[in-house]
Amino acid sequence: MEKCVLLAIFMLATAFTPVDNYLFDCGSSTNTTIDGCNFIGDNPGSSFSVSTGKNILGTTSSSPVAPVAGSALYRTARIFTSKSSYTFPIKSKGRHWVRLHFFPFTYQTYDLTTASFDVQTQDTVLLSNFRVQNTSSPVFMEYSVVVNSDSPVLSFVPLDNSVAFVNAIEVVSLPPGLISDDALTLNPLNSYNGLASVALLTSFRLNMGGPVVSPATDSLQRTWASDQDFLLHKNAAINVTTSQILTYHTGGATPDTAPAIVYTTAQMMSPQNSATNLFNITWQFSLDFSYSYLVRMHFCDITSKALGQLIFNVYIGSSLAASDLDLSAQTQSLAS
After folding, report:
1. Average pLDDT score over residue span 49-65
2. Best exposed site among 145, 159, 194, 238 by fewest CB in 10 Å?
3. How far apart are alpha carbons 335 and 264 in whole angstroms?
4. Nearest to 9 by CA among 298, 286, 232, 272
5. CA–CA gap between residue 275 and residue 75 (Å, rounded)
6. How far apart are CA 81 and CA 70, in angstroms?
7. What is the pLDDT of residues 265-284, one digit of tens each?
8. Partners of 88 in beta bridges
9. What is the 3-state secondary structure (H, E, C) of the chain?
């Protein structure tokens, strides 16, 4: 299958409350609260079950070297010496977050930096021959998967006489329609259908021109990083912000598509450079091109003084993704 880029554009209710909201501090006998979210201790009960050969709950007094939110989650881990599974009773089928937290440490004879394993659901291999050798910072993997079973299973499979482990697990339902079924493919240029059933791994999620957004301020418990480290030429853009009330249009973005701070901050072309047609704002990402990528861009015009003043092209690499994009023509209003 030829690799491609999928493009979905959002133009700018009550926040979504997940029906399924399983947060587990694996290997812990007590609950842990992170950013207002309660991760329950990893003691199987009515909310989930664990099938494993040995009940190994590892602990450590060490923490990640780099400061990280939720560092308390990484002081414990459940360790697996053979194929083991978590089973979750699901109240509402459909798209869910599956979030996995990993931070290796040594517990008794188990050196988790040497662990090599697969992680899979009944339908999808999430991680293959996965290893975490960096002890300075944890690894966080976020998947958006479609759950079609009343009792989905998440399995950890040690490889090569090794072990598997996990520090924390999140399984959280998502609002219907968050991922549209249609998108535009680039290279080759075409339409794509069936996206709503595809499992996705988050690579980057950025808040352009604004601060880091923590899960506590996002209705879907997402983290949005600042875009500053990804700007290719920092003097090419300026941060802008607004206190205007956002307008949400029927059939468009909702407060669950992204939190308000994402739409009330932006990067704008620096005025001293705007006279040249060769000028642009560029963000650069390190990607593995053996995969295809879905690129979702969120727009809200918070800079124009009148309609029809903001028209531009969007490129992904050398491919034209959107030509003469006129935000006001899409919404017929500003800050929307």
Report:
1. 87
2. 194
3. 8
4. 298
5. 54
6. 26
7. 999 988 765 555 567 899 99
8. none
9. CCCCEEEEEEECCCCCCCCCEEEEECCCCCCEEECCEEEEECCCECCEEEECCCCEEEECCCCCCCCCCCHHHHHEEEEECCCEEEECCCCCCEEEEEEEEECCCEECCEEHHHCCEEEECCCCEEEEEECCCCCCCCEEEEEEEEECCCCCEEEEEECCCCCEEECEEEEEECCCCCCCCEEEEECCCEEEECHHHCCEECCCCEECCCCCECHHHCCCCCCEEECHHHECCHHHEEEEECCCCCCCCCCCCCCCCCCHHHHCEEEEECHHHCCCCCCCCCECCCCCCCCCEEEEEEECCCCCCCCCCCEEEEEECCEEEEEEEEHHHHHCCCCC
Q: Report how far residue 283's alpha carbon sits from residue 232's, in angstroms, rounded to the nearest whole number.
A: 5
Question: Encoding tokens for residue 24?
Answer: 């587990």
Cβ-contact 6, 195 below 8 angstroms: yes
With cut-offs at 50, 70 and 90, classify the pLDDT of residue 246: confident
Residue type at position 235: N
Which of helix, strand or coil describes residue 321? Answer: strand
**What pLDDT is stored for residue 3 in this prediction?**
45
Instruction: Tell if the pTM clears 0.85, that is, is over it.
Output: yes
Longest CA pairwise span in the chain (Å): 67
